[in-house]
Specification:
This protein has 2 domains: 102 residues, Alpha-Beta Plaits (2-Layer Sandwich), CATH 3.30.70; 109 residues, 2-Layer Sandwich (Pseudouridine synthase). Helices cover 14% and strands 39% of the residues. It contains 4 helices and 13 strands. Strands 1, 2, 3, 4, 5, 6, 7, 8, 9, 10, 11, 12 and 13 form a 13-stranded mixed beta sheet that branches.
Length: 253
């Protein structure tokens, strides 16, 4: 079957709970990834709990498998989300298109919007956050901090809705202007607005109490929207996708 057609996307080996949000005629697509699902396998045996239940080639950032007729199939991953983060994630059925869209990300020409449920309340309804992060990547682990850093990180925060129950929580909208590892989680924590369920930068005691009330230990960070313009084969295109906010975010608002 032709890559990028409706039948092509319908027959992908989707991971548990993964759904197709949008696609275009060029083979660009957006999926909704549930919390707890990997963007791609990190080790042998990870395939069943990944975006696609298929082998993944790190060098090309591409899923590879054979369809029911034995024909080789590929889907190129365009961006990543931490396994604990839910929401919009992009892929392409064409390798050249994947290269072009990845370049858009590097040039910061992709608009991303996140929702986060945080403990506490921001001082102002809208704020522009600018920080210098220290990012350490060793042994497959990533850690970021706002102390003694030299990596610029910028995000715009706006309040969506304040919780009306205890514990006091706020739903915020986060628009990163830069794409640093763990940027939003660290920037929220710095401002004493830890994202609920954050097991690295969050408030561990409050996380445990909240998990008992909510019945889930998930990280309350969600990739809500992704949109951008791009040019492909001499023609301009616009692509946008939105993943509905999970129901558990609404429970304490």
């Amino acid at each position: 079957m032709s890559a990028g057609t409706a039948s092509y996307w319908a027959t992908l080996p989707y991971g548990r709970g993964v759904t197709l949000l949008n696609r275009d005629a060029n083979g660009l697509a957006a999926f909704a990834k549930p919390a707890g699902i990997l963007s791609h396998p990190n080790a042998a045996g990870d395939e069943p709990r990944s975006l696609l239940d298929a082998p993944y080639a790190v060098a090309g950032e591409v899923f590879e498998w054979k369809d029911g007729d034995g024909a080789p199939q590929r889907v190129w991953l365009l961006n990543r989300l931490d396994s604990a983060t839910s929401g919009v994630i992009l892929a392409a059925a064409d390798g050249e298109l994947a290269t072009a869209i990845r370049a858009q990300f590097k040039r910061k020409q992709v608009r991303k919007v996140y929702n986060a449920l945080v403990f506490g309340a921001p001082r102002q309804a809208m704020e522009l956050w600018r920080d210098l992060l220290a990012v350490d990547k060793r042994g497959g682990q990533i850690r970021a901090a706002v102390s003694a850093g030299n990596v610029p990180a910028e995000s715009r925060m706006s309040v969506v809705r304040a919780g009306r129950k205890e514990p006091r929580v706020t739903l915020v909208r986060l628009e990163p202007r830069t794409g640093r590892s763990h940027q939003l989680r660290v920037q929220c924590a710095k401002r004493h607005l830890p994202i609920i369920g954050d097991q690295t930068y969050g408030d561990f005691g409050r996380n445990r109490e909240f998990a008992k009330l909510a019945g889930t230990k998930r990280l309350f960070l969600h990739s809500l929207e992704t949109s951008f313009d791009y040019e492909w084969r001499g023609r301009p295109w616009t692509f946008a996708a939105k993943a509905p906010l999970p129901a558990e975010f609404e429970k304490f608002l």
